[in-house]
Specification:
Blueprint (H helix, E strand, L loop, with lengths): L1 E7 L3 E8 L4 E9 L7 E8 L2 E8 L5 H12 L13 E8 L10 E2 L2 H9 L8 H14 L4 E6 L9 H4 L6 H4 L10 H15 L6 E6 L3 E6 L5 E4 L20 H9 L5 H10 L2 H6 L4 H9 L3 H25 L4 E5 H6 L1 H7 L12 H6 L7 E2 L8 E4 L4 H13 L2
Parallel strand pairs: 1-6, 6-8, 9-12, 12-14
Antiparallel strand pairs: 1-2, 2-3, 3-4, 4-5, 7-8, 9-10, 10-11, 13-14
């Protein structure tokens, strides 16, 4: 069975085609600069034991045009990996926000599309392109079932005491202001991989997804998310590439009222000029790491603050879970930045968490789950490569074969 996984952005389209029985990726690629000059599609494929790449550079007026080219690449007589578009059984779409309505994966209907549209105010940057991707895929692959996998759905198990804010109730009941959480597909995937790796079906874990956007989730022994650092939107919690993470709301009022900064400027600052960029001059941890090694004081402070914020949430989530079996690092920094993991696990011996620095270095960039704790550590420290596309393919497969 062939399942195509789509992650549509406002001007981009990431895709992977899976043979779901073997978990093999037959083709993948990125269409970028959709709707703006300089459009191109970078397409990679695996066929008859060989792999290759093709670059298509042409104007892409919209997502539908990008899909037409992708479909042609997938079925090309020389580099194609399927014979015809109808060979694709289902298309799994990443949809960022499902609100309270969608707590599990859904076959896409007109009603589902209308609900995704209604949720646009909660995810104005993400749900619109997700919806465009769905409608374009419906035209290019009309015989395939279209399936929505929601980033927020994994967090629907968070109890009310954790998802409500201490503001008047009507803002929740009438306006939907609550913790929703994000990165759910990644948190679910690495948690399930950890369960298999550790042979523990009752695993208590803290999953730590560290990329340009970052979040942590407390997952109980039943596999339920019970708390997560990203809340109503993708701004709070951990320090991120350009986002501030947790900040005293009084600062926003002070900037608006005393410093006379427009709200749009404050919002832009918190979302796009803060985090690692604001602290160390770059949102790329590789740049910050290079400055750190040169002794740059701002880069050193950035790593100290970044790690300290993670450690605070580790302590909080250990309390919420009443103990933990494993910490799981994943995503760009979680998998590939030794310094980040080192600072995140620093001075946690009192909680039974001891990082093996040699293992942390030698097992960087893993392809499979690895352990980086000392022998005396009471808590496992794992690094597990995330694979959100495979998780979307799995959930799509499970739904269409019910």
């Amino acid at each position: 069975m062939y399942i195509l996984v789509i992650n549509a952005g406002s001007s981009s389209l990431k895709y992977q085609l899976f043979n779901i029985e073997t978990k093999a990726v037959l083709a993948k690629g990125l269409a970028e600069r959709i709707g703006i000059p300089g459009g191109r599609i970078k397409h990679q494929f695996a066929k008859n034991g060989n792999s290759g790449e093709k670059l298509v550079e042409q104007h892409l007026p919209g997502h539908s045009e990008a899909f037409k080219i992708i479909s042609a690449l997938l079925t090309d007589s020389e580099i194609g990996v399927i014979e015809k578009p109808e060979d694709i059984t289902a298309v799994g779409h990443r949809v960022v926000h499902g609100g309270e309505k969608f707590v599990e994966t859904q076959v896409i209907t007109a009603e589902v599309k209308n609900a995704i549209k209604a949720l646009i105010p909660l995810a104005p940057l993400h749900n619109p392109p997700n919806l465009v991707g769905i409608e374009a895929a419906e035209k290019s692959f009309p015989s395939a079932k279209q399936v929505a996998v929601f980033d927020t759905s994994f967090h629907h198990t968070i109890p009310e005491r954790a998802f409500r804010y201490a503001i008047p109730e009507k803002f929740y009941t009438e306006d939907g202001i609550r913790v929703y959480g994000f990165h759910g597909t990644s948190h679910r995937y690495v948690y399930n991989e950890a369960k298999k790796y550790l042979h523990n079906d009752k695993l208590k874990a803290i999953t730590i997804h560290l990329g340009n956007g970052s979040s942590m989730t407390a997952i109980d022994e039943n596999g339920h998310s019970i708390d997560t650092t990203l809340g109503f939107g993708p701004l709070c919690g951990l320090i991120m590439g350009t986002r501030s993470g947790d900040i005293d709301p009084a600062i926003i009022f002070h900037m608006a009222e005393e410093m006379e900064m427009p709200l749009a400027q404050i919002k832009n600052m918190l979302y796009k000029e803060s985090g690692m960029l604001g602290l160390a001059g770059s949102s790329d941890a590789r740049d910050v790491g290079a400055k750190y090694k040169q002794g740059d004081k701002n880069a050193i402070l950035c790593y100290e603050m970044y790690g300290y914020r993670i450690r605070k949430y580790i302590g909080a989530y250990m309390a919420a879970l009443n103990g933990v079996d494993a910490l799981i690092f994943t995503a760009g920094l979680g998998e590939n930045d030794t310094l980040t993991r080192s600072y995140a696990c620093k001075d946690l011996q009192g909680l039974g968490i001891e990082l093996d620095e040699a293992a942390n270095e030698s097992k960087n960039h893993p392809k499979e789950p690895v352990e980086i704790q000392t022998e005396s550590s009471r808590v496992k420290i794992l690094v597990i490569p995330t694979n959100e596309e495979l998780e979307i393919a799995r959930e799509t497969y499970e739904l269409v074969t019910k």
